Amino acid sequence: MDALVTHDLCKSYGPHEVLHKVNLQVPTGCLFGFLGPNGAGKTTAIRVLLGLLRASAGAAQMLGRDVWSEGPTLRADVGYLPGEVRLYDHLTGRATLAFMDAARGGGAAKEIKRLADRFDLDLDKRVRDYSRGMKQKLGLIQALMHRPELLILDEPTIALDPLVRQTLFEELRCVAAEGRTVFFSSHTLGEVEKLCDMVAILREGRLIAQERIEVLRARAVRHVEVVFAAGGGSVRPLPRGLQVLQDSENRIAATWIGPIETLLSWLGGRAVQDLTIAPPDLEDLFMTYYQAGKSEPRP
């Protein structure tokens, strides 16, 4: 059973359509990235999935249950971090988590202590005295502390320093290793690439791609520079997928899209003096998904 599935999910406010026929499929135990720029509709989609907004059309199930009709019981098995964490300023961090734990039926005290130690958060301060980063840590602990079957995190790394971000990623990898599922919304490709197994890309309310990360890497651009030995003969014909940007007497600078083995096989038949192949540039690929009028890049 998939952890999360949507069927032609739509959400409109009057004539303004925010989501258009979104079809997601998130496998159980997956680290799933939900990627798109600010304003793409990610937060609206998450609120519909949590049963906080009602879809205008279509359907969605999480953990095998309808997100609207079974929302109250379903949310007990979900951990959620909103994009903007709002907490009771007069409570301490400890009292905040105790209140939330009691609302869920209790039993998370040991996990609260472990996570507070992991994120190095002083729970005895009042929330009003927390920095933005500390509030984000508190929000993460409340999402994680009951060990939910599904974690939905909306821009969870906002205000976190690099070391805390790394700690969060380690925790999320442990969640997936236990067979639980992480749905990680972000507008930053780099962090999704480091963490996630799969990614869905949303543009202007439309799902324009859903792939495994390795599939995206196979489509991504590599920057290549080759220096050929003098007098080594013609380097042409060029293989499909190699686009030359600069061409001098014995040097070419180019981009490559396709299996690296194909490029190396072509180079193996030529007198190569020096070779530089950069890692796949997923940022370039990501930007091609947002070019007007194009729904999918082609190699």
Please tell me about this protein's structure.
There is one protein chain. The longest helix is centred in the middle third of the chain and has 16 residues, at 162-177. This protein has helices spanning 42-49, 71-74, 93-103, 109-118, 132-144, 162-177, 189-195, 213-219, 260-268, 282-288; strands at 4-13, 16-22, 25-26, 31-35, 57-62, 65-66, 78-81, 150-154, 181-186, 198-203, 206-212, 222-228, 242-247, 251-256, 272-277. It is an alpha/beta fold.
Overall 3D geometry? Answer: elongated
Strand content: 25-35%
Count all strands and give the number.
15
The CATH superfamily of the largest domain is P-loop containing nucleotide triphosphate hydrolases
Rounded Rg: 23 Å
* SS class: alpha/beta
**Main sheet: strand order:** 7-8-9-4-10-11
Topology:
Blueprint: E1 4-13, E2 16-22, E3 25-26, E4 31-35, H1 42-49, E5 57-62, E6 65-66, H2 71-74, E7 78-81, H3 93-103, H4 109-118, H5 132-144, E8 150-154, H6 162-177, E9 181-186, H7 189-195, E10 198-203, E11 206-212, H8 213-219, E12 222-228, E13 242-247, E14 251-256, H9 260-268, E15 272-277, H10 282-288
Parallel strand pairs: 4-9, 4-10, 7-8, 8-9
Antiparallel strand pairs: 1-2, 1-3, 1-5, 5-6, 10-11, 12-14, 12-15, 13-14
Helix pairs in contact: 4-5
